[in-house]
Write a structure and sequence with these properties.
By secondary structure, the protein is of the alpha/beta class. The protein has 11 helices and 13 strands. Keywords: Metal-binding.
Length: 283
């Protein structure tokens, strides 16, 4: 059993190797956000969002480092006073002596990364990149082991995702047969064309907007339909955390240090409950 500890600088080096900051999209803000590179790191918590509830979990749980998918400081910040949510988050991290590291679009394009975890949850084989963005492969597309109905596919995917009130929103005939699936964790309604070009029967992503979804259905009117599955932004990216945390633990262990890792179960999906407006539910 290893007895030594590692430093934040060492952990950052490993994470940067897994998810090189240079592969992040030009608008993104990734890497180390708070923390002293020389501080020792023994316990690490992984989460999708650096939300206040998650930061409280890290502080109260005695974690030294919080690794999140979404960055805390994406746009220009002129103040970190506690009068704002960002300010309260930064203050809680600094006062609680918890470092923060973000791997966002660089984790999306990594192999293995966010989209690989979603592809595994969908049960895909022969997986390949869906599209290239700023010189990096984004999303994945692959085939199911055997065709199944859209409803059966969505039910199986739902069983792999963390529970969220809204669940899956699906556009398509529930009894239609699907065999080829495109995935893109997080917001992905800008890649309908790529999913079609890849021959996908169904496209699993999140944050599908009203007008692009309608336009997609209308484009399908004279062609092969592309069924849409909105799996939720938080849920579709949460799947990556388990593998990322285990990978970090193993890499630190290979360098002769002990590292305890955990995945936050706090739901940071912003929606709390769902009220159906369908006629069948109201009768």
């Amino acid at each position: 059993m290893n007895n030594s500890t590692t430093t934040l600088a060492q952990v950052t080096r490993i994470l940067d190797g897994f998810y090189p900051p240079s592969t992040a999209q030009s608008w993104d803000a990734v890497g180390l956000v708070t923390g002293d590179p020389a501080q020792p790191i023994e316990r690490v918590l992984f989460a999708v969002d650096p939300a206040l509830d998650v930061i409280d979990e890290a502080v109260n749980g005695g974690y030294d480092l919080l690794v999140t998918h979404h960055p805390l400081l994406m746009r220009g910040v002129k103040s970190v006073a506690t009068t704002s949510g960002k300010g309260r988050a930064v203050t809680a991290l600094v006062v609680g002596d918890v470092a923060l590291y973000a791997a966002h679009t660089n984790a999306d394009v990594a192999t293995p990364g966010v989209n690989d975890a979603l592809a595994v949850a969908c049960g895909l084989r022969g997986v390949e990149p869906l599209v290239e963005t700023e010189g990096q492969p984004l999303g994945r597309v692959g085939d199911l082991e055997s065709p199944m109905t859209l409803r059966a596919f969505c039910e199986r995917l739902a069983s792999k995702l963390p529970p969220a009130p809204v669940g899956l929103r699906v556009s398509g005939d529930p009894d239609a047969e699907v065999a080829r699936v495109a995935v893109l964790g997080g917001a992905g309604d800008g890649e309908f064309g790529a999913a079609r070009a890849a021959g996908a029967d169904v496209y699993v992503t999140a944050d599908l907007r009203h007008h692009p979804a309608i336009e997609s259905r209308e484009e399908d009117a004279a062609d092969k339909p592309l069924f849409l599955v909105d799996a939720g932004h938080w849920a579709s990216e949460w799947l990556w955390l388990e593998h990322a945390s285990e990978r970090l633990r193993d890499a630190v262990g290979a360098e002769g240090a002990d590292l305890e890792v955990a995945v936050s179960r706090r739901r940071t999906d912003p929606w709390d409950f769902l009220v159906s407006t369908s006629e069948g539910e109201q009768q």
